[in-house]
């Protein structure tokens, strides 16, 4: 579904990514971990085209999307839940969701307003509420719901549960587990190694703009001390 090889990127003269490689197979839940400032968000921005790659390649669902415009990448089936949520504050919950609604791939059971509300009942309860008035956890649910309304082939979540209360964090993980059960491919940035170990098929760790470790859950258990050092726990 997604294959990133030797990715490089910079902000002006400042190099941030030097050699990032990762892959997500169809239906997999894959994590990208590392301390703050190591290049995780830059990796996501470069994958989806918000930042031009200065080297390496990104292939998505059989197409080379390296350097393509983000709106084109999105139409091919990447759905992003960005760091900081970036919802539309002056639209209602319902308006945020329907603003991105699309079913470009004619799915048998596409994501609709009704399906998103079934996944996140709080959004249904607050459908007429201004998005800016939601709690942080509710805004994250809205950001996920908005991405699902594009009916993506791959869902990317940047800092999936950062700053959320434990009860909301648990609710988000439960929903992501349900999405995995439906076969939706996911690439998730988070630092909760314990939960990620349970949910994910594969893990990648980046340090100073380079992929320094990758492996499945068993490998993570064997190298937990080393990975914790990279992740900063």
Folded structure, characterized:
The chain is α/β, with parallel strands linked by helices and 233 residues long. Helix content is 36%, strand content 26%. It contains 10 helices and 10 strands. Strands 6-7-8-3-9-10 form a 6-stranded mixed sheet, sandwiched between helices. It has a 4-stranded antiparallel sheet with strand order 2-1-4-5, with helices on one face. A hairpin with a 2-residue loop joins strand 4 (53-60) and strand 5. Helix 3 packs parallel to helix 6. The longest helix is centred in the last third of the chain and has 16 residues, at 166-181. The radius of gyration is 17 Å and the shape is globular. It starts with a strand and ends with a helix. The model has no long low-confidence stretch (mean pLDDT 93).
Give a nutshell description of this structure.
The chain has about 230 residues and is α/β, with parallel strands linked by helices. The chain has helices at about 40-50, 70-75, 95-100, 115-120, 120-125, 135-150, 165-180, 195-200, 215-220, 225-230, and strands spanning about 1-10, 15-25, 30-35, 55-60, 65, 80, 155, 185-190, 200-205, 210-215.
Secondary-structure blueprint:
Blueprint: E1 2-11, E2 14-24, E3 29-33, H1 40-48, E4 53-60, E5 63-64, H2 70-76, E6 78-81, H3 93-99, H4 113-119, H5 121-125, H6 136-148, E7 154-157, H7 166-181, E8 185-189, H8 193-199, E9 202-207, E10 210-215, H9 217-222, H10 224-231
Parallel strand pairs: 3-8, 3-9, 6-7, 7-8
Antiparallel strand pairs: 1-2, 1-4, 4-5, 9-10
């Amino acid at each position: 579904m997604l294959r990133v090889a030797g990715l490089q990127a910079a902000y002006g003269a400042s190099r941030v990514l030097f050699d990032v490689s990762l892959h997500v197979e169809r239906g997999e839940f894959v994590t990208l971990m590392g301390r703050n400032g190591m290049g995780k968000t830059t990796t996501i921005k470069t994958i989806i085209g918000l930042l031009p790659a200065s080297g390496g390649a990104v292939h998505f669902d059989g197409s080379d999307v390296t350097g393509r415009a983000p709106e084109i990448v999105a139409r091919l089936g990447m759905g992003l839940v960005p760091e900081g949520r970036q919802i539309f504050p002056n639209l209602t919950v319902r308006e945020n969701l329907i603003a991105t609604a699309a079913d470009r791939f004619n799915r048998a059971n596409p994501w609709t307003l009704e399906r998103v509300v079934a996944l996140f009942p709080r959004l249904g309860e607050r459908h007429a509420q201004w998005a800016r008035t939601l709690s942080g956890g509710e805004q994250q649910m809205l950001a996920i719901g908005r991405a699902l309304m594009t009916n993506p082939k791959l869902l990317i979540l940047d800092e999936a549960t950062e700053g959320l209360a434990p009860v909301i964090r648990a609710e988000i993980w439960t929903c992501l587990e349900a999405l995995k059960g439906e076969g939706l491919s996911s690439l998730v940035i988070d630092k909760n190694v314990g939960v990620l170990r349970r949910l994910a098929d594969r893990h990648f760790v980046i340090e100073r703009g380079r992929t320094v470790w990758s492996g499945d859950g068993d490998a993570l258990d064997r190298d937990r001390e080393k990975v914790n050092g990279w992740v900063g726990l």
